[in-house]
Design goal:
Elements lengths: L1 H47 L7 H17 L4 H25 L7
Helix pairs in contact: 1-3, 2-3
Protein name: chorismate mutase
InterPro entries: Chorismate_II_sf, Chorismate_mutase-related, CM_bact, CM_dom_sf, CM_II_prokaryot
GO molecular function: chorismate mutase activity
Length: 108
């Protein structure tokens, strides 16, 4: 019977972890949606004023900042950088799209 109790406890604990993971995933989706809402506004602002879609200096600063934050949070900085690079590429793609829709150049 003790094996059954232990297995039941493990299943209960697993269900609790999974519920937390599900909540975190939902929060991440909502945070990303808000981030992209803001970056879309930045893209419109850039396109309206003829600014380039990409800002390599800011991107470098953000990667350095995120790597530092990742280390402080005990998260693999390489993973954090890969994640941010993916997000940055997507933001730039959106900014290029916005610029094209506004008749601006894709250079920069």
């Amino acid at each position: 019977m003790s094996d059954d109790v232990t297995m039941d406890d493990a299943r209960t604990q697993l269900a609790g972890y999974r519920a937390s993971i599900d909540n975190i995933d939902a929060a991440l989706v909502h945070m990303l949606a808000e981030r992209f809402r803001c970056t879309k506004a930045v893209g419109v602002l850039k396109a309206t004023h003829g600014l380039p879609p990409a800002d390599p200096k800011r991107e470098t600063e953000q990667i350095e900042r995120l790597r530092r934050l990742a280390k402080e949070a005990h998260l693999d900085p390489d993973f954090a950088e890969k994640f941010l690079n993916f997000v940055i590429r997507e933001v730039i793609r959106h900014h290029e799209q916005i610029a094209a829709e506004n008749g601006a150049s894709k250079t920069g």
